[in-house]
Amino acid sequence: MEINLKEKIRTLRQQKNVTQEALANHLGITPQSVGKWERGEGFPDITLLPKIAFYFDVTVDELLCVDQIKIEETINGYQNQSKVFKQTGENAKNLELWEKAYSEFPNDCRVIEGLMSAINRDAVFPCPKDKAERIISLGKELLDKSTDVRQREEAVQTLCYTYNSIGDKEKALHYAEMGGSIYVTRADLRADVLDGEEGVEACQNYIMSAVGMITLKASAMVHKIDFSHEEKIEIYQFSNDIIKLLFSDGNVGFKSIDIASNCFWIANEYAIMQDKDKLLRYLRESVKYAVVSANLKDMDYTAPMVNRLKHRNAETSKNYHGNICNILINSLENPDYVFSRNFDFVREDETFKRLTAELKKYAE
Q1: Which pTM was predicted?
Q2: Sign of torsion, CA 142 148 153 154?
Q3: How far is it, in rounded angstroms, from Cα 263 to Cα 265?
Q4: Which helix (H) or strand (E) holds 307?
Q5: Residues 171, 175, 178, 182, Cα dihedral to 10°
Q6: Which of 80, 82, 85 is nearest to 320 (CA)?
Q7: Which residues contact 185 (CB under 8 A, 6 or more apart)?
Q8: Minimal CA–CA distance to 156: which of 172, 133, 132?
Q9: In angstroms, rounded to a whole number, what is the distance separating the alpha carbons of residues 364 and 361?
Q10: Which of 32, 258, 281, 329 makes the best surface tag, with the fewest CB within 10 Å?
Q11: Distances in whole angstroms, Cα of residue 92 to Cα of each of 95, 189, 243, 326
């Protein structure tokens, strides 16, 4: 409250274009007292508050920033509820929440970011035109209004992905050029600057993030050109190998989702090649890590390269209902998924039946 009051008095005085001396004379106090208030070194006597408010033609609540405090509490409430919806993959509810927030606070950058992100999470690929237009409008508004580095980065990334989704490569590349270099990131600079245990943790966070980005880009390669089945398998296997190298003791934690997904896609390639033995081998590994993910609790990582880091379920979010077991079951059995037909020739195999039953057991 004290910090808000000192800033409020200074702002109101400057807006009214009066000096500290003029305000002091009106209140019957010394200019030094006003100076101390504006530096945060003191607080006006409670009996002076109505006089100060009257002088600036505001209410005492406005002077004390009570309205702003209520706004902060309301927006914080929206942010906390949104975090819950993102943890449970409830995209529609998350979007409804931020639409409501935007109707109340259309000029707040946190709300603009929240709505932009919510629309983006709720959209399918390729992004429908109406949703793309709203995302782009909100992203540009955020860039115009926000000075917060993280918010601006979020806007740039979302604009780049959205333009790419609707096939506008030129504008997508325009925003891609606004991104930072891989060599100049907050995580990289913190890892260089911090020392001791804090420095080790920063290095490990950077390494884990770097491995995550490497595996994402490796998987993205698959969709760029028409790779052979063998090449696709090698790409997915590379992603798993680098994850397992980092988590050398096998305690892969949250990365179990990535391994399960990569193994499924390897199994899919072998399904296309009609190689039953290798298909079942990788499907078995996929199910193993999917079950690990479905049962994942808060934990500490233990491998030497990540042993200062922790996994906390409350810090995660997802863009779908259920867990990875649900996704794999749909991929294997939903006829709307084209690649599910690739597994038709092994559906009567007992191992295949056992593995799908295991997924159903742990699906949410």
Answers
A1: 0.79
A2: negative
A3: 5
A4: none
A5: -120
A6: 85
A7: none
A8: 172
A9: 8
A10: 32
A11: 5, 37, 33, 19
Among residues 246, 277, 274, 276, the alpha carbon closest in space to that of 259 is found at 246
Q: Encode pLDDT of 45-64 as tens digits.
A: 888 888 888 888 888 877 87
Contact present, 346 and 335 (Cβ < 8 Å) = no
**Given the structure tokens 């090649």, which residue do they identify?**
273
Length of the chain: 364
Whose tokens are 């804090």? That residue is 198
- CB of 167 within 8 A of CB of 159? no
Lookup: tokens for 136: 């782009």
Q: What DSSP state is assigned to residue 249?
A: T
Contacts of 297 (CB under 8 A, 6+ apart): 313
- For the segment 317-361, what is each residue's pLDDT rounded down to a tens digit? 988 889 999 999 999 999 888 889 999 999 999 999 999 999 999
Burial of 224 (0-12, 13-18, 19+ CB in 10 A): exposed
